[in-house]
């Protein structure tokens, strides 16, 4: 069964915890977004894991160097999954994976900014990534002509476990899962909704219906 991951790109621990409490019944993975961790520090990871010990807590560190050191910080704080950038060197990714193995947790490689996402996804899977996030970041999404269809097409030919992040919403989540993504990542479609619980519930039902 494919998983639903909420990407919380709010800026305070208080708001993140309030959102997570509303949507918890519908989601599998709670992502603490990079801006949230930069604003609040790694303590937000600990606070979220304490509030939701039954969920996978995902620390979106987007590490580019010092892979083992940075991943270790997040795992010690309570993260189950931590991101390292696909644009980083193999040594950085291997270091993060070493930390994950030491904690019995996982590394997700984020392909933001990578030109050939499918090729890199296949390479880093061999290094031991838990899964690879085919990701168009917020700035890319706001660029004219952006379409999530590019990521959906890439997922269909990746041949390795992937998630899709970059504007997932109720109109495209079925295609995201049908393309083979094991995780659909939804940020603004949930935290920006008038009723986040209803939005998360609708996404959950659409995923489960595939
Ligand atoms: O990872 C993200 C971005 O780099 C800011 O942290 C987003 O959480 C990711 O793009 C998913 O968010 P939406 O595109 O709003 O669904």
TrEMBL record:
Q: In which pathway does it act?
A: One-carbon metabolism; formaldehyde assimilation via RuMP pathway; D-fructose 6-phosphate from D-ribulose 5-phosphate and formaldehyde: step 1/2
This enzyme catalyses: D-ribulose 5-phosphate + formaldehyde = D-arabino-hex-3-ulose 6-phosphate
Q: What is its EC number?
A: 4.1.2.43
Gene3D superfamilies, from UniProt? Aldolase class I
What's one Pfam family here? Answer: OMPdecase
Q: Which InterPro entries match?
A: 3-hexulose-6-phosphate_synth, Aldolase_TIM, OMPdeCOase_dom, RibuloseP-bd_barrel
Write out the GO MF terms: 3-dehydro-L-gulonate-6-phosphate decarboxylase activity; hexulose-6-phosphate synthase activity; orotidine-5'-phosphate decarboxylase activity
Note whether Lyase occurs among the keywords: yes
Entry annotated with the keyword Cell wall biogenesis/degradation: no
Q: Which EC main class describes this enzyme?
A: lyase
Q: Taxonomically, which superkingdom? A: Bacteria
Which family, according to UniProt? Answer: Belongs to the HPS/KGPDC family. HPS subfamily.
Name of this chain's protein: 3-hexulose-6-phosphate synthase
Q: Which organism is it from?
A: Pedobacter cryoconitis
């Amino acid at each position: 069964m494919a998983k639903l991951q909420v990407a919380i790109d709010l800026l305070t621990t208080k708001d993140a915890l309030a959102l997570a409490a509303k949507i918890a019944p519908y989601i599998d993975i709670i992502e603490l977004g990079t801006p949230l961790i930069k604003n609040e520090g790694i303590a937000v990871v600990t606070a979220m894991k304490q509030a939701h010990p039954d969920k996978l807590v995902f620390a979106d560190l987007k590490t580019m160097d010092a892979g083992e050191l940075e991943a270790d910080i997040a795992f010690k704080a309570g993260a189950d999954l931590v991101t390292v950038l696909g644009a980083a060197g193999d040594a950085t990714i291997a270091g993060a994976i070493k930390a994950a193995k030491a904690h019995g947790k996982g590394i997700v490689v984020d392909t933001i900014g990578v030109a050939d996402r499918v090729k890199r996804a296949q390479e880093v899977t061999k290094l031991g990534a838990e899964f690879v996030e085919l990701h168009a970041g917020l700035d890319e999404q706001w660029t004219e002509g952006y379409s999530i269809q590019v990521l959906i097409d890439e997922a269909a030919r990746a041949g390795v476990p992937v998630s899709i992040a970059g504007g997932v919403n109720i109109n495209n989540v079925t295609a995201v899962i049908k393309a083979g993504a094991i995780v659909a990542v939804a940020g603004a479609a949930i935290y920006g909704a008038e009723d986040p619980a209803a939005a998360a519930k609708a996404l959950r039902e659409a995923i489960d219906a595939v």
